[in-house]
Amino acid sequence: MKRLVAVVVALVIVVVLVCVGGSQLVADQMKSAGGPPPGAPTPVVGAGTRVIQARGYLEPARTERVGFVAGGQVAQVLAQAGDAVSAGQVLARLDTAEMEAQVRKARDALALAQAQLRQAQAQAAPKAEEIELAKVELERAQIALRQAQAAYDRIAWRGDAALSPEAGALEQATLNYRAAQATYRLKMRQPKDSDFEVYEWQVKQAETNLALAEAELGKAELRAPFAGTVTQVDVVVGGLVGAGAPAFVLAAGMQVQATDLDEEGVAVIQVGQPVTITVLAFEDKVLTGVIRRIAPQATKLASGDVVFPVFIDLDRPDESLRWGMTVRVRFR
């Protein structure tokens, strides 16, 4: 029995020695290799601080393809790749011969409609000399009516008075007086707005047509929507371009896009977190920035791994930086 116990104890001692020796061997291998083997967690620096790094590149903060609203033949190209442009600056123009002809036609039509309206208003407005003449005619008719009435009154007692020449003269004088009254009232009448509705509608229609023609002419110019740099030109003088087809590419600003941050790294960073950026093209170019946006969905690589693009605003963009330069981002 004692012999059996001694054998068991000896076996236990051997197992313990083997385990201790194996652990030491693994530790020595890690030490000689300079760090943990591939696939190990991100190293820890200090008391619980994880160092997370990612590669990336500099890119424009804003990029936009711009094109003509209307199609046509390109007459002028006023900006080339690399040119700095201001907001509203003309980049190119289309041939405008036909558009300008339409504008001239619309202006002539508007001028004619306005002239017709003025003529109608002038004809409808009461004129002093015509009013005075109508007044004189009315007074003459009134005098003639009184005279005819007096002549008829002298024979009105006769039985055949209604058939007498005096009765006929009185009837004619009455008609003349009423006609003179109507003419005088017509000359004194002030025109109403409704009298000119047709002419006013024609003027408004002509104004609308002119505005449309001028708007079409404005579409012949392509202007920069914001201040930036032309990075690409896709039109040439004499070439045809379709409405909405990209003609220029504009870019502005500077930001960093980190391109290879894995899911373990993205889990511990957040928007607003400060970062340090090293520009690989310069030995001493170290910048600072802040995380502005983290892609909500991963990008799957050909290897099957996934990465999350991270977009970073620079605190102080440097004029020596160029879009496309590679960087290393350290998330603090």
Radius of gyration: 49 Å
Overall number of structural domains: 4
What general outline do the C-alpha atoms trace? Answer: rod-shaped
Unreliable spans are 1-47
Q: What topology, given as strand order, has the largest sheet? A: 3-12-17-14-13-18
Write down the secondary-structure element order: HEEEEEEEHHHHEEEEEHEEEEEE
First CA to last CA: what distance?
65 Å
How is the biggest beta sheet arranged? 6 strands, antiparallel, barrel
Helix content: 40-55%
Mean pLDDT over all positions: 83
**Which class do the helix and strand fractions yield?**
alpha+beta
How many helices does DSSP assign? Answer: 6
Q: In percent terms, what proportion of residues is strand?
A: 25-35%
The count of DSSP E runs of length 2 or more, i.e. the number of strands, is 18
What does this structure look like?
This protein is of the alpha+beta class and 332 residues long. The protein has 4 domains: 40 residues; 100 residues, Elongation Factor Tu (Ef-tu), domain 3 (Beta Barrel), CATH 2.40.30; 67 residues, RNA polymerase II/Efflux pump adaptor protein, barrel-sandwich hybrid domain (OB fold (Dihydrolipoamide Acetyltransferase, E2P), Beta Barrel); 113 residues. The chain contains 6 helices and 18 strands. The strands form 5 sheets. It has a 6-stranded antiparallel barrel. Strand 13 and strand 14 form a beta hairpin. Helix 2 packs antiparallel against helix 5 and helix 3 runs antiparallel to helix 4. The longest helix is centred in the first third of the chain and has 32 residues. The protein is rod-shaped and about 135 Å long. The N terminus is likely disordered.
